[in-house]
Write a structure and sequence with these properties.
The complex is a heterodimer of chains A (79) and B (239). Chain A is mostly helical and 79 residues long. In chain A, 58% of the residues lie in helices and 8% in strands. Chain B has 239 residues and is an all-alpha fold. Chain B folds into two domains: 46 residues, no CATH class; 169 residues, no CATH class. In chain B, helix 3 runs antiparallel to helix 4 and helix 6 crosses helix 7. Chain B is globular. Classes of the chains: A mainly alpha (79), B mainly alpha (239). The interface between A and B is medium-sized, with 23 and 24 residues.
């Protein structure tokens, strides 16, 4: 019911697994949300707020733009 | 933020525990005086009010957004129901004589819509359906136990025949969600026909609506939710 229009793609799962196989619960604990929130972000069912996106990016030491990007169609519309 | 990072699969929040105690106390004490029913209202709506005023911060942003969205869905559903009842009542010589039954209907519609929307938003269709079925089966099991507490044979029979299928469906829906969804919708249609609930007004329109929402609503909602499950996506990132 809350599924967004898929205008944002994220690489959260990729960077999480690259971080020594961090679990969803570990990441959830570090950014102070529930594991289900992390699951929903990874599935594309939920787009986090700017604050949460920044916190997650900070955990992996990367920028928000590296972690989240607009879908190709959305990028073309902006150009 | 208290209680957000629950490591076990289910750990009720303190606010939820207190709310549950208020609801149970209110329901029991209502037998002595209906003024105690206010405790039920406090239990149901109190935690939400505290969260909106910032006095309780036990939900993360996703949970809060799901809750707000569910509240909007409940508002829409109750509004539609209200419009239908006004149209029905004013369109002919019909008198809805028990206003408390109407209030019960709106509470049921609000609660059921909010619960369903919250579950679907927060845990997804398959998990929501499993939880609904387990809760539904547990409720009927408790009801059967209370009804046949001195009749072990009847309790066993009713437990197996009536509540057993819901637990079985909850288990099957994890593996075969769409098949389970079809079975649930078929069961809904069966109960609708078997108990003749399609005959409007047999036992009072308002009471009939409340019973249908509480009895058939969970089955139909679970069935429809399971039909929307995409197995590959559900298994994608669960770790």
């Amino acid at each position: 019911m809350m599924k967004p229009r898929q205008e944002i793609r994220n690489h959260l799962r990729h960077y999480r697994l690259m971080a020594d196989g961090m679990t969803q619960q570990d990441l959830a604990d570090r950014v102070e949300v529930t594991r289900q929130t992390i699951v929903s972000i990874e599935k594309g069912n939920y787009n986090p707020t700017v604050v949460l996106a920044l916190r997650i990016a900070h955990v992996f030491g990367i920028s928000v733009e590296t972690l989240f990007e607009l879908e190709k169609g959305e990028r073309d519309d902006r150009d | 933020m208290t209680g957000i990072n629950a490591k076990s699969w289910w750990r009720p929040r303190p606010a939820s525990m207190i709310a549950a105690c208020l609801i149970i106390a209110g329901l029991i004490l209502s037998n002595t005086s209906w003024w105690f029913f206010i405790l039920v209202g406090l239990g149901i709506f109190g935690p939400g009010l505290l969260r909106e005023f910032g006095a309780l911060r036990d939900k993360d942003e996703f949970q809060s957004r799901s809750t707000h969205r569910a509240g909007y869905h409940a508002f829409l559903a109750a509004g539609i129901i209200a419009a239908i009842f006004v149209a029905y009542n004013r369109s002919g010589e019909r008198n809805l004589k028990e206003p408390e039954e109407l209030a019960t209907l709106f509470l049921v519609v609000l609660w059921f819509t909010w619960l369903l929307s919250s579950l679907l938003s927060f845990v997804g269709a398959k998990r929501a359906a499993v939880r609904i079925l387990i809760g539904y089966g547990a409720f009927w099991l408790l009801f059967s136990a209370a009804s046949h507490i001195t009749e072990p044979a009847a309790l066993l029979m009713e437990g197996l025949m009536v509540t057993g299928p819901f637990f079985v469906l909850a288990f099957l829906s994890r593996r075969w969600p769409r098949l389970s969804g079809f079975l649930l919708i078929a069961a809904t249609a069966f109960f609708l026909y078997r108990f003749q609930w399609y005959e409007i007004g047999r036992s009072g329109l308002v009471n009939q609506c409340v019973v249908m929402i509480l009895f058939l609503g969970p089955l139909l909602a679970s069935g429809i939710a399971l039909l929307t499950v995409r197995p590959a996506l559900e298994q994608a990132t669960e770790r």
